[in-house]
Amino acid sequence: MRIHLCLALAALLLVALLDVPLVQALFVLLSILLVLTGELFNTALEKTIDATGAKPHPLAKAAKDCAAAAVLLCALFAVVVGIAVFGPLILEGPAWRWK
After folding, report:
1. Is 46 among the residues known to form the active site?
2. Is 99 part of a structural domain of the chain?
């Protein structure tokens, strides 16, 4: 979760520094919120399963694995959005100098 928060702050900083257009900035924000929401649901599910079962159950493991996979998919979506939004702006080079 800490890594996701640090990367989210870095992405928001890039949005501000690179003067990203509004629609693209909203996609970045949406992907950040999607990852953080997925992390929160994953944590809630894991804590609930850990609190209700004294010994591991195969269905509990399957539920945890599915929640972790959902977070992974959210993170992959965020990477794709980041490449699509920041890639062209960074590859332009000097055009994005400090204003």
Report:
1. no
2. no
